[in-house]
Amino acid sequence: MTRLRPHTLRELKAAGYQPRTIKEEMRANLVRKLRAGEQLFPGIEGYDETVVPQIVNALLARHDFILLGLRGQAKSRILRKLVDFLDEEIPILAGSEVSDDPLHPISKHGRTVVLEKGDETPIEWLHRNHRYVEKLATPDVTIADIIGDVDPIKAVRGGHILADELTIHFGLLPRANRGIFALNELPDLAGKIQVGLLNILQEGDVQVKGYPIRLALDVLMVFTANPEDYTARGKIITPLKDRIGAEIRTHYPETIEIGMEITRQESWAAREGVCVEIPGFVAETVERIAFLAREDKRVDQRSGVSQRLPITITESMISNAEHRALQVGEDYVVPRIGDLYAALPAITGKMELEYEGELHGSDKIARELVQAAALKTFHERAGGADVESIVEYFEQGGALQVGEDGSAAACVQGFATVPGLLELVESVGLAPRSATDGARAAACELTLEALVGEKRVSRSRSGHYGRARHEGPPGNGFKGFDPLSS
Predict the structure, then answer these.
(1) pLDDT digit string (tens) for 123-182?
(2) Cα 61 to Cα 64: distance, rounded to the nearest angstrom
(3) 351 vs 326: CA distance, rounded Å
(4) Where along the chain do the CATH 3.40.50.300 domains lie?
(5) Which helix (DSSP H) or strand (DSSP E) does residue 212 occupy?
(6) Residue 365 half-sphere exposure toward CB, CA atoms < 13 A
(7) Which of 5, 54, 59, 234 is the most exposed place for a label (fewest CB within 10 A)?
(8) What is the CATH number assigned to the segment(s) 9-249?
(9) SS3 330
(10) CA-based radius of gyration for the chain
């Protein structure tokens, strides 16, 4: 039988309700999760040994905190998952704009209702999803947006003087009472607004239109910021920064494997009506593009290279492969290295360039990153493989045209004309003989792109492979080659 929830103040008291602060509530639920061995932040990869323990410590210590990190490091997603540490529902006074605790109302409206109705005061229940308030800080945010403002209409309808608290239209922060208030990009908030935050949190009072208001808010304050924004667009005022209990640094994936898992989790790969197969070496190549871009001196590292880059690359290359499959009548989609070149707009739009990078051009840099990523992936998976027969074929004038709209079977047939190519990808495990034509074609393209990256084979933008255009020292079998040295 379902237990009925209390709907009056009398029933709530009879049920033994004991109020607790938001930070006490979150701490208790966190302790319960830790003892039960539950996953604290499902869907957040790569932070188990770094960021998550620091957040846990901050919550256990009942501290407000700020997440510092470059774009695309899941800062906002982490903050939104904090609602999982709240009780499923809490009681509030019915009709309260600031989620008044029935036993300790902070608003004049709440105190008046309890005084007039006593134990018959009606109670509502607020779900935890409605206890999270998020605001993006911009220079035009006002104190009225955050704290509130005098509402003349309320004054007229209620017959109140403007100095009466009942005339206040509450802003986001009071409405987040007994919940979580998240402020993204804190340095963008004007200094005078930051002072208002500090005052209401530290002293419990604020002035609206010159009228003092006391609100003993019960809020967990969490923030995000880009470290570079401290000087680029604004700064956090020292008194507010001093009051934030913990400063937690986020970061990009530390390993290719973690990056691949995040990209797999976040990218839209399932397409209606077709079967999508992404070979592991293709997914690895995509991820290496992001890793290499984060090390490239031509890319502005202060801006960062978001994890959205490999995610959008994945979605774009799948779409290009899907387009090809629809044209040639294939019922399965296997992205190849050539599809990465069709995804160049997803790369160039995610990189801010330094002056040297601007001279080279984003398109050229993106192409070099694709070649370097293919070379590095091949080196990791088939380093030391004998490619001499393949190189010799092109050095003796052999050529190969790989069209973007060619079917997988046609590509495999074309790759079979290059001595040793199919045998190599099968022998090193890139694409065994039992693999689909799409996977074998993709493995052959990876091999050829690696040779292009080592400058032993040339590739035109139309997908024509031929003799290397520049004379130089012979290749070294993919050992010790720096894919970004050129």
Answers:
(1) 999 999 999 999 999 888 888 888 877 665 665 566 665 556 666 778 898 899 999 999
(2) 9
(3) 31
(4) 9-249
(5) strand 211-214
(6) 28
(7) 5
(8) 3.40.50.300
(9) coil
(10) 30
